[in-house]
């Protein structure tokens, strides 16, 4: 069975959220394009860059290992040429 190609960009809320060590981030890309998926702290400093590459149209899922990131509130941002979205994430210990 063929997987459906997304018709629009979409950044899902990470799960679980809040999380202790690991969380899953899922996003959709409708066309081949450069994607940047970045985690920022509450002061909008870059904590880690999860993706910075050209992606084919499709749905992607990755795991963020937050075990080395201090407890607190963070933001996950998905950006492309024509799209940007951001979701709030909370790490608890």
Number of domains: 1
Helix/strand-derived class?
Answer: mainly beta
Q: Beta-strand level of the residues, as a percent range?
A: over 45%
Q: Which sequence of strands runs across the widest sheet?
A: 4-3-6-7
CATH superfamily: Macroglobulin (MG2) domain
- Cα shape: globular
Q: Which CATH first-tier class would you pick? A: Mainly Beta
Mean pLDDT: 95
CATH architecture: Sandwich
Order of helices and strands: EEEEEEE
Biggest sheet layout: 4 strands, antiparallel
Helix % is under 10%
- Tally of strands: 7
Number of helices: 0
Structure description:
The chain is mainly beta. It has a single domain (10-91), classed as Immunoglobulin-like (Sandwich). The chain is 0% helix and 59% strand. It has no helices and 7 strands. It has strands at 10-11, 22-29, 33-41, 46-55, 58-65, 72-80, 83-91. Strands 4-3-6-7 form a 4-stranded antiparallel β-sheet, with no helix packed on it. Strands 1-2-5 form a 3-stranded antiparallel β-sheet, with no helix packed on it. It is globular, with a radius of gyration of 13 Å. The mean pLDDT is 95.
Tags for this model:
93 residues, mainly beta, Immunoglobulin-like, four-stranded antiparallel β-sheet, three-stranded antiparallel β-sheet
């Amino acid at each position: 069975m063929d997987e459906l190609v997304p018709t629009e960009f979409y950044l899902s809320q990470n799960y679980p959220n809040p999380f202790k060590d690991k969380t899953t981030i899922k996003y959709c890309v409708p066309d081949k394009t450069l994607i940047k998926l970045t985690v920022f702290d509450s002061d909008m400093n870059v904590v880690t860059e999860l993706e910075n590459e050209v992606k084919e149209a499709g749905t992607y899922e990755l795991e963020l290992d937050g075990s080395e990131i201090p407890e607190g509130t963070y933001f996950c941002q998905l950006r492309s040429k024509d799209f940007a979205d951001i979701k709030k994430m909370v790490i608890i210990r």
